[in-house]
Model the fold of this input.
Amino acid sequence: MEQSRALPTEVDLSRPSAARVYDYFLGGAHNFEVDRQLAEQIAAMTPNLADTMRAGRAFLRRAVAELTRLGVDQYLDIGSGIPTVGNVHEVAQGINPQARIVYVDIDPVAVAHSRSILEDNPLTAVIQADVRDPAHILAEARDTGLLDFTKPVGVLLAGVVHFVPDSDEPDRLMATLRAAVPPGSYLVISHSTFEDQPQEMLDAQKLSARTATEITLRSKAQVSAFFGDFELLEPGIVHMPLWRPDSPGDVDDRPERFGAFGGVGRKPAAG
Amino acid sequence: MALSASEISTSGAQRYAGRWTHAVTRRAFVTMSGEQVEELLTAHAVRLAQALSAEEFSADPAREVGRALVEANLTEPDTLGWSLRALGEHLVDDVVPGLRLPDQATRLTELQAALAEGFALALRDRTFAQQERISRSAWEARNEAEQALRDSEARFRAVFSGAAIGIGIGDLTGQIVDVNQAFADMLGYSRDELREINVSNLFHAEDSPGIWELYEDLIEGKRDRVRIEKRYFRKDGSELWTDLAVTLIRHDDGRPRFTVAMVQDITERYALQQRLRFQALHDPLTGLPNRTLFFERLEAVLQDRQHDRRVGVCFLDLDGFKAINDTLGHDVGDKLLIVVARRLAEAVSSAGHLVARMGGDEFVILVADVDQDGTTVEVAESALRAVAEPVYIGANQLAVSASVGIVDRFVDDGTATDLMKAADTTLYWAKAEGGRGRWARYDPERAAREATSTALAAALPSALARDEFVVEYQPIVSLGNGGMRAVEALIRWQHPTLGLLSPDQFIGLAEETGLIIRLGQWVLERSCAEAGRWHKEFPRARLMVSVNLSARQVSDPEIVDQVAGALRNSGLPPDLLQLELTESAVMATGGEPVRALRRLASTGVRLAIDDFGTGYSNLAYLRQLPIHTLKLAGPFVDGMRAHDPASVVAERIVDALVRLAHALGLSVTAESVETPEQVERLTALGCDSGQGRHFGTPAAPSAITALLRSAEMPGS
Done:
């Protein structure tokens, strides 16, 4: 099999991993000393960050639950990380036990971990691939046999597109993904932003360069462009907690403090 | 004392859980909605209240609640703190108000301890499990990556060691890092020996100069791959030809790192190519270079347009080779060619000249740089000497000679084709000089003349068809009375571009090509027709027309019929036609001309010998011929000049010739008479008639008609 983008051939445990740092922020123990050190450094600068990550996780949970209730029973979760808690398959299969999920991550440790967690779940699969290589992701996803690309698919990009710098043409890769799914499919994106953010949030972004990838903060307009002609579900692209909260009480008075937008779009019928 | 479950306040449990939910979800709002968390915590509040108020006390439910909190992912440290504090401070008031047990305080403490214990144990278990899982995942991932690396290495290793193609890896200093067995086998070294060697030691002394530069470009990163055909020395000193592809391997940042060479042994293919090339460029009989190779070299010399450089070519052809082939057989002929080829090679190859066989018995020698290599003539002469040595083939001793055409010119003076055409022409000259073992040197002026002649010869037939020829007439005057007795018909060619050409410019060509027969007949008919008209108009003048016949016309069996036909057609009396023949035509050995002369004479025409005294006349023979007139060649008359002591001799010769002619009953016409003095002397010597500028140059028929008319005028 041809791999147009080289995947890591070495597993360097002396460097922190974004997936394990994320896990730590979510209260998991799937992490090592280097990951925790970096997480603490980031947390020291931006006390909100752990909340941001939980909020991101919660947004994903609400979005998947919503889509599953709308009838979507297959998901492509790109940049799934280490599925500590509140995983897509748990949420989706909790509503529809036949829901099928393909997880994608570039981190070989995250992939190995996901496989061990999902060993006994025949309706899930994990593939190692780079988000910047959508053609490869789509080919591998088809090869799993779990997803039927003639029927609506939920494509999830939770907290991952901001790892793709402009030089890697995120617009193009989003267009490829949008084109690969049939009408009625959904695109879920959460993405860090500089809009409405205090300086320390922007500084923290620079620290993220110490994990494998730097974060590129983008405006609402830029995030909106990633949806192309997909029709945004209400309430559109908003700070994450504002996207269909479970109850009004779940939203605190400063939803922008989480520093990321969330949105869900639906592919319109052709023509 | 026992309490029933109904004493537990449902609304109180909800109030308690509401505060609890608010406290924990501030930090751990993750997997469930707030509603779900509150529902869960309400159940936990009820369980804790039940445990507290149970008749028989057990702290186990609190332990399970602690564990359940962890399982619900409510693991933040302050979750535990809040839970414990609320248990002690609010559980009774909120959920079981009014509960007063004697050991109530102890029971609460027990429950707090058990909840903390359950929480801690569950968290510890979970952490252990997660740590173990992530470690195992990391190990697996690393293992997989390493396995993939090992697999890839093993695959590479298998390719490297098992490849039939030679593979070598070198560092940037040229030091060989590793080679596979195939490479080592090709070069005849062991792999260990090669690993001690620098690639520069493997460069062949005769590698083309560009190869080093290509290699330098490669290791400097200026190019990524190089593919060439290259020679190596094997360990035993023998030569190995390879198809070599060298690829540069770079560091991640682009800096050159290694070179990888792929080597294929093409020695056999190369040898075959060389053999095929040799065969394509050499003559199979003699082994000499063939014309293809010769032209290749010649072109190369001509390409190298150095100022003032001269190139020479000797084009050599054996004399009489066809006769040897015909009499002794082709086998002997071939052997002779082999000997000649070897001798030529020995004679001139040592000096660096290329000897090639052009085909048949033609050889050619290329003197690439005349100024450096001695003159081309010297080369030709040494070639002729080499060929001239007797050749022994079986029982035959053959005396062989050759002719050589030499061309020697500046390199920028025309193409190879021009040069060889010149050589061919010059060889023809050498042959035409009639000798064996001669050489001739190219003369551009002669060639130009010949080229003009050739062009004229080619144009002759169409000129005749287009009526481009005219006849002029020159008076022949009686020295006795000064009257015009005859006119000589002289042909002219009114050439469309070259103007009026005299006979000496084209008659020779017409004789060579055979066109002289038709041309001569045309002149004969045209002259007779003209003379016939004159005779009709001026019968008393009895003007004779004198027409030249070439030797070929004389020997033509048709000539008598042609003459008779011309007389018949024109009505000219035979005795008014004189035919001029050259001495050589008359004196030619063999009976046919004499018979032809007799038959011509029998028609009644007069015969004259033209240019008498310039050929080899057999005077005795002259007597037997039916000749009427001798025309004394111009030089005799030219010699008769006033105040010239030599003119005495000339006069005596003319005197003798006139006497001789008269003795034989022949009349004499002097040619080239130019002065009155000459007329006077010739008259004194008894010469019968004269022709020349003194009496009039060749003129158009109308001028002759005018002369005849004025002669008839009364009183003239």
About this structure: Residues 49-69 of chain A form the longest helix (21 residues).
